């Protein structure tokens, strides 16, 4: 009860084309995350699925039924917004029940559903408060509750954690993961934060410039990026890209190696560099090596390490973890 | 914090300027009110003196109230002002919502066209307006005044309100759409309460010129039964003799209703936007 199919969706604002033909199938119960840099069209795509924006072309199907011309309230969706978007003049209870009241559901059913959602999100103490009397984390829980109460076929999240501080973000992330398990509902989630994407998603859709760059599970994207963009976007710190010529290789145009797949030492490795900066993060140490022609290379070492700035180090790449890209940026497999 | 707030010199200077301005602005009002309570001789002998035992007199108010029609004039002014105000706020807010919320061909052009009314005084069109009112048989009706004042107030209302409505969170309106609220409910229940302070500002700016206007009542509705209070007060100003007691008393009375309306709206101005909707 919650599959989604997008067929050749395009969207233009005036002459600017923001979505350039997107095909996507989401299965029932899947947690799919759209990631991409700002302006890649991920939020617009979500709004098109919600029906808040009309697609210029293409069709949308929810549960096999075409909804391209259906208004948002009739699509069987619920949306959680970045800014919470609670109704300021209504109490938490009324905020959660408004949608069902509009749909003319019997009061007993409304009360029961609000009750269930309240327990699920531990909102009992706040039911009679107004949004102004709640903290940011509580407001976002109410917004999620408002979505849960609707029992939608499809949950849509538009960067729901961006306005929360770091600690709350982790908590709310866990809450959303738990919710997905308990409800078994289909969820589509937009974020620019790749940690959220990696931790929550069943499948990630990487968008860039209005096109899908790659679709896959988090580990597929990490281990087998289809092109330079995905390789650079997934993983933090970012993958190092080096001109193949600088390494004396001729089987590719660009060589990619993740910071965590480089070892450093005094014996001769793939490349040598001067230590230009060291970041101590406790669990990790990030070392930046200035390798002349090849540029700045980031090495991520586990645990605590000490290095002298300006000392010379040799870096050795894990040969099984080297990615090769051709002249068009496509991965060579 | 602003540095100027901490400096006593700046603080005194700012207050001095504000107090001076307040005195200049209030001076004519005070002169009108104190002289309304004085006898005719006292008005001319010492216009700035407060009424005392000898000079105190309510003759002005007696004359005004004995003229009998004054209650009617009051009623006319109130009806015209309140109805025009209501129409300006309603249609102004609706047009502003359409301009700020919906993308349609000619949106910017429409906004400019509506804003043009702020720059061109409506009185330039008096002759045409009079011809129109004569042709439609609306001369000497309150409807004529209400129509003209609504047209006069709309441009500024739309200009100010559309600016404020742009700031209302899109997410909030979209949440309403997903919950199945109609566009009208979104407008009346979600957007209007959030722009209430702007509505109050517009109300004050719209109301005062309408209440004080002499021009259109004189031209469009000078008949006895449709006279407004400002026009009514003119009966005491003659070519040769002016009954100053009555004029001042009438003006003092005319201040009251507009003062009450202002107090109602200014409470809204101070109360501020209901917070907590977003962020």
From TrEMBL, chain A:
GO terms for molecular function: ABC-type maltose transporter activity; ATP binding; ATP hydrolysis activity. InterPro entries: AAA+_ATPase, ABC_transporter-like_ATP-bd, ABC_transporter-like_CS, ABC_transpr_MalK-like, ABC_transpr_MalK/UgpC-like, Mo/tungstate-bd_C_term_dom, NA-bd_OB-fold, P-loop_NTPase. Residues 4-234 form the ABC transporter domain. SMART domains: AAA (SM00382). One of its GO terms (cellular component) is ATP-binding cassette (ABC) transporter complex, substrate-binding subunit-containing. It is a peripheral membrane protein. It holds the Pfam family TOBE_2. It is found in: Cell inner membrane. Keywords: ATP-binding, Nucleotide-binding, Transport. PANTHER family: MALTODEXTRIN IMPORT ATP-BINDING PROTEIN MSMX (PTHR43875), MALTOSE_MALTODEXTRIN IMPORT ATP-BINDING PROTEIN MALK (PTHR43875:SF3). Belongs to the ABC transporter superfamily. This is ABC transporter. It comes from Nitratireductor indicus C115.
Automatic annotation (TrEMBL), chain B:
It is found in: Cell membrane. Residues 74-265 form the ABC transmembrane type-1 domain. It comes from the Bacteria. Coiled coil: none annotated. The chain crosses the membrane at residues 12-37, 78-99, 111-134, 146-165, 186-211, 246-265. One of its GO terms (biological process) is transmembrane transport. Keywords: Cell membrane, Membrane, Transmembrane, Transmembrane helix, Transport. GO terms for cellular component: plasma membrane. InterPro entries: BP-dep_ABC_trans_perm (IPR050901), MetI-like (IPR000515), MetI-like_sf (IPR035906). Its main location: membrane. Gene3D superfamilies: MetI-like. It is a multi-pass membrane protein. The keyword Transmembrane helix applies. Belongs to the binding-protein-dependent transport system permease family. This is Sugar ABC transporter permease. The lineage of its organism: Bacteria, Pseudomonadati, Pseudomonadota, Alphaproteobacteria, Hyphomicrobiales.
């Amino acid at each position: 009860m919650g599959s989604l199919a997008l067929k050749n969706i395009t969207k233009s604002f005036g002459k600017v084309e923001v979505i350039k033909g997107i095909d996507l199938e989401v299965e029932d119960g899947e947690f799919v995350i759209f990631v991409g840099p700002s302006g890649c069209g991920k939020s617009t795509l979500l709004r098109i699925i919600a029906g808040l924006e009309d697609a210029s072309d293409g069709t949308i199907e929810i549960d096999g039924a075409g909804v391209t011309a259906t208004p948002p309230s009739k699509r069987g969706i619920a949306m959680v917004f970045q800014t919470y978007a609670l109704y300021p003049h209504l109490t938490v209870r009324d905020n959660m029940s408004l949608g069902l009241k509009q749909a003319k559901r019997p009061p007993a059913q409304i009360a029961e559903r609000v009750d269930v959602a309240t327990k699920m999100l531990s909102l009992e103490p706040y039911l009679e408060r107004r949004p102004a009397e709640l903290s940011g984390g509580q407001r976002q829980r109410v917004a999620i509750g408002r979505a849960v109460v609707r029992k939608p076929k499809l949950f849509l999240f538009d960067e729901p954690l961006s306005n929360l501080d770091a600690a709350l973000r982790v908590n709310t992330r866990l809450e959303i993961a738990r919710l997905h398990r308990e409800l078994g509902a289909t969820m589509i989630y937009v974020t620019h934060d790749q940690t959220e994407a990696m931790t929550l998603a069943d499948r990630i859709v990487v968008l860039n410039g209005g096109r899908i760059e790659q679709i896959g599970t988090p580990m597929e994207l990490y281990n087998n990026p289809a092109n330079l963009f995905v390789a650079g976007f997934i993983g933090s710190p970012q993958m190092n890209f080096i001109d193949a010529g600088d390494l004396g290789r001729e089987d590719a145009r660009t060589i990619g190696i993740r910071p965590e797949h480089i070892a450093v030492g005094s014996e001769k490795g793939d490349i040598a560099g001067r230590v230009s900066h060291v970041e101590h993060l406790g669990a990790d140490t990030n070392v930046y090596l200035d390798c002349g022609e090849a540029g700045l290379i980031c090495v991520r070492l586990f645990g605590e390490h000490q290095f002298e700035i300006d000392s010379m180090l040799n870096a050795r790449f894990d040969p099984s973890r080297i990615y090769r890209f051709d002249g068009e940026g496509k991965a060579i497999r | 914090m602003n540095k100027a707030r901490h400096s006593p010199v700046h603080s005194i200077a700012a207050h001095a300027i504000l107090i001076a301005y307040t005195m200049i602005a209030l001076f004519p009002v005070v002169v009108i009110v104190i002289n309304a309570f004085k006898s005719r001789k006292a008005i001319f002998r010492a216009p700035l003196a407060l009424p005392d035992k000898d000079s105190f007199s309510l003759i002005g108010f007696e004359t005004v109230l004995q003229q009998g029609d004054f209650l009617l004039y009051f009623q006319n002014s109130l009806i015209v002002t309140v109805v025009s105000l209501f129409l300006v706020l309603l249609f102004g807010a609706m047009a502003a919502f359409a301009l700020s919320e919906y993308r349609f061909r000619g949106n910017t052009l429409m906004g400019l066209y509506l804003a043009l009314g702020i720059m061109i005084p409506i009185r330039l069109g008096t002759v045409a307006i009079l011809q129109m009112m004569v042709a439609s048989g609306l001369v000497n009706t309150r409807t004529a005044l209400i129509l003209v004042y609504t047209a006069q107030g709309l441009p500024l209302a739309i200009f100010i309100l559309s600016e404020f409505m742009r700031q209302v969170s899109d997410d909030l309106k979209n949440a309403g759409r997903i919950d199945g609220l109609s566009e009208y409910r979104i407008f009346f229940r979600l957007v209007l309460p959030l722009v209430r302070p702007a509505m109050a500002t517009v109300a004050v700016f719209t109301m005062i010129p309408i209440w004080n206007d002499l021009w259109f009542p004189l031209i469009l509705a000078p008949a006895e039964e449709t006279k407004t209070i400002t026009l009514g007060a003119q009966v005491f100003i003659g070519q040769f003799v002016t009954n100053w007691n009555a004029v001042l008393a009438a003006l003092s009375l005319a201040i009251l209703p507009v003062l009450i309306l202002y107090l109602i709206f200014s409470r809204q101005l101070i109360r501020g936007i209901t917070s907590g909707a977003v962020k």
